[in-house]
Amino acid sequence: MKVLITGINGNHARMVALRLLAQGHEIFGIDRRPWPDAPPNIHVFQTDVRKRPAADVFRQHRPEVVIHMATITHFSARADERLRINLHGTRLVFDYCHEYGVKQVVFVGRHTIYGAAPDAPLYRTEDEPPLAVSTFPELADLVAADLYAGSALWRWPELKTAVLRLVYLLGPARRGTLANLLDGKRVPMILGFDPLYHFMHDEDAVEAIIRTIDHQLSGVFNVAGPPPIPLSVLARGTGRQAIPIPEPLFRYAVGRFGLAYLPPGAALHIKHPIVVDAAAFRAATGFQHQYDAHEIMRGFRDG
Predict the structure, then answer these.
(1) How far apart are CA 24 and CA 135, in angstroms?
(2) Region for residue 14 given its phi and psi (left: phi exceeds 0; alpha: psi -120 to 50; beta: otherwise)
């Protein structure tokens, strides 16, 4: 098949592209950043998904499958830029998919859109409303993009749309929200709280995306790896030191003293867990994670 990946120069998107290429698919990519050493059989177009040349890629090459991975987090851009890329970029990608006859689209999202709250259920199902728009304002644009992608299920029922809400990724790519939290030797915690953290290996995430395409999934699905573990155990397992900080001092301490910077809204994510129920995805695809929590932490620590 012809497969188009937006944001193809991201570490995880590259992994997906190489796996699909090995399966014999024809791979196209759109990204503002170049991929200088891309394999010759992967056609990369250096442009913004919001610009006219991106529409030309859809019109000229007519991909059958689109994997939308061109979203960013608060670590890499200001709020106005995130809104333009995450929401407006997602809207245009789905418009192109509808206009140019794409058969299947996969939106790769994040489980953090559910938001952390003291009264939330421990395991969040796909029916749970995303609360992060109010509890973590820096995630509002990602919540909006996720909901817009999900709206394609009823707006364009002929377009097989899969919205994947992946837990934190942790692995050799060393990219992502959790990898940033563990970037230094010290991990900030709020005194009196030790929430469960749900994560999976990079390779397992890639396998989940491939299975979504192979099974032509349509719907919203949580995707997870091994069972969650407490943040203190995660810090110790990756060779870091957990530093409990009194809550009134937390926002003054992060970003200093060897602690990773976290925006103000992240405090709730350090206090309360975001754990998902991924049973529906496993039932639909037969997916089973290959890396347990110990292997993931050891690989990240030694990487």
Answers:
(1) 43
(2) alpha
Residue with tokens 């349509």: 218
Contact by Cβ (8 Å): 265, 138 = yes
Please name the amino acid found at residue 223.
Answer: V
Q: Are 261 and 254 in contact (CB under 8 A)?
A: yes
Q: Are 34 and 46 in contact (CB under 8 A)?
A: yes
E-strand spans in the chain?
2-6, 26-31, 42-46, 65-68, 104-110, 123-124, 160-166, 168-169, 186-190, 196-197, 199-200, 219-223, 229-230, 241-245, 275-276
pLDDT at 285: 97
Residue 123's Cβ-count burial label (10 Å; 0-12, 13-18, 19+) is middle
Overall pTM surpassing 0.90 (yes/no): yes
Q: How far apart are CA 29 and CA 4, in angstroms?
A: 5
- By the 8 A CB rule, do 58 and 96 touch? yes
Q: Which residue is listed with tokens 């245009």?
A: 92
With vertex at residue 211, the alpha carbon angle to CA 209 and CA 216, rounded to the nearest 5 degrees, is: 100
Burial class from Cβ neighbours inside 10 Å (0-12, 13-18, 19+) for residue 232 reads middle
Tens of pLDDT along 94-132?
Answer: 999 999 999 999 999 999 999 999 999 999 999 999 988
CB 104 within 8 A of CB 66: yes
Residue type (1 letter), 33 = R
197 near 203, Cβ under 8 Å?
Answer: no
Phi and psi dihedrals of 185, rounded to 5? -85, -10
pLDDT of 218 over the 70 cut: yes
230, two tokens: 């407490």
pLDDT digits (tens, 9 = 90+) for 24-52: 999 999 999 999 899 989 999 999 998 99
